[in-house]
Amino acid sequence: MLNPRASRLEVWGDPIAHSRSPQLHAAAYAVLGLDWSYGRRRVDEASFREELANVDGTWRGLSLTMPLKGVAFAAAVSLDRRAELTGAVNTFSFDSTGPLGFNTDVGGIVRALADDGVTAVERARIVGAGATATSALVAVAELGARDVDVVARRPEAVEPLAVLGHRLGIAVTTSPFATSVLGDVPLTIATLPGDAPVADAVADALARSGGLLLDVVYGHWPTALSAAWERAGGSARSGLGMLLHQALLQIRIFRHGDPDAPLAGEAEALEAMRRALGEPATA
Question: Phi, psi at residue 140, to the nearest 5°?
Fold first, then answer.
């Protein structure tokens, strides 16, 4: 059971100065009347265990960003299904047993796509095969995808995604970093770092057949891929929507211990979070 008096929260990662999570959480806490503090701390993999050992009963939870999602997974005393599937934890809540691990990135992707009217998809493309690609694969599985092509520079990096895809009932194929064996798809999720170099010819080829682009990057915009989508007259969305919605799910966890338990006043809190990001309000 969460300690009702615990009020301290932070986001940990390295680098961390760019994080917009403190803005999001502060905006929501003000609307929800939560007397919690939310800061940021630079923590790398080498210092993670020591920092975690210093967490006491005043702490309610943590947000965890790169490169800590794997070590957080290993440190959690329990895991929600999305964390267990992805091997990545981006949220801790604390009770007397220790850190409880959750993955809200998956739900953040699903909810961000819903903002664009995408609530079901049979085929999709994922660009990149790193840690975030795993969350993207679970997200499209939740949307009903049965065929997913992963475009990656190193085909061998796709093997863990293929294994996970088999578990999820998805046929995962691998394409070199210029084509896609699926051809046209209604949805592309890009999981590359914002400054990743992508040749214009490659980006343009992906854009012509890629449908809606959700690029998980938000600190480097436009990216090479989003610029290609613009040239092709397509629709591209940054990772701000994913960031927004995964943060809302974190607040549900910090409040109730359950990412599926809505908050009282949640709609108002979400609009305040949108304003904090400079995102347009919903109708």
Answer: -70, -25
Regarding beta strands 212-215 and 187-190, do their DSSP bridges make them parallel or antiparallel, or are they unpaired? Answer: parallel
263 plus 211 within the same structural domain: no
Catalytic residue IDs: 69
Domain hosting 81: range is: 8-104+246-277
27: tokens are: 């905006």
What is the value of pTM for the model shown?
0.95
Regions of the chain with pLDDT less than 70? 178-182, 280-283
**CATH number of the domain that 254 lies in?**
3.40.50.10860
Structurally, how many domains does the chain consist of?
A: 2
Instruction: Show contacts of 233-237: CB within 8 Å, 24+ apart.
Output: 234/207, 234/210, 235/116, 236/212, 237/112, 237/116, 237/212, 237/213
3-state secondary structure the chain: CCCCCCCEEEEEECCCCCCCHHHHHHHHHHHHCCCCEEEEEECCHHHHHHHHHCCCCCEEEEEECCCCHHHHHHHCCEECHHHHHHCCCCEEEEECCEEEEECCHHHHHHHHHHHCCCCCCCEEEEECCCHHHHHHHHHHHHCCCCEEEEECCCHHHHHHHHHHHHHHCCEEEEECCCCCCCCCCCEEEECCCCCCCCCHHHHHHHHHCCCEEEECCCCCCCCHHHHHHHHCCCCEECCHHHHHHHHHHHHHHHHHCCCCCCCCCHHHHHHHHHHHHCCCCCC
For residue range 83-117, list pLDDT tens digits in order. Answer: 999 999 999 999 999 999 999 999 999 999 999 99
Residue 3 domain-assigned? no
